[in-house]
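seq:
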Amino acid sequence: MRYIALCLALATPASAWEFSSSPICSLSQNGKLVVEVTYDASLPEYAIHLTRHEGWPPSPIFAIRFEGPFPLTIATDRHQIKGNTLSVRDRGFGNVLRGMARNVQAVAILRNLEVPFSLDGAAPAVAEFRDCPSDLSV
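struct:
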């Protein structure tokens, strides 16, 4: 029985954090919730995009709560929802990147909806993102 459970676990695709520097700096994880953080030096602008198959309810406030050894909650009213993707753009993302690198889980919050996503393995990808060949100074 343990052998079957191990085989099933190994056959399940892992949702790992990945970094890319082309065409812009990006950090992403493809899981039940697709998370992408980008930095476009030509704007200059950071963005986080959270894509959920079920979509997102309208809400005047979006928050993201980082859970783990360095808990942090960030809220904004400057989010947009287009289709199944919620996006937030800003000129600085230091708190978001620190939250991702130092904690074990994040929770996207809109009204009463809380959607958790793992930050397991995010720290190395966040470090690469910070070192991306552009004007990253966070």
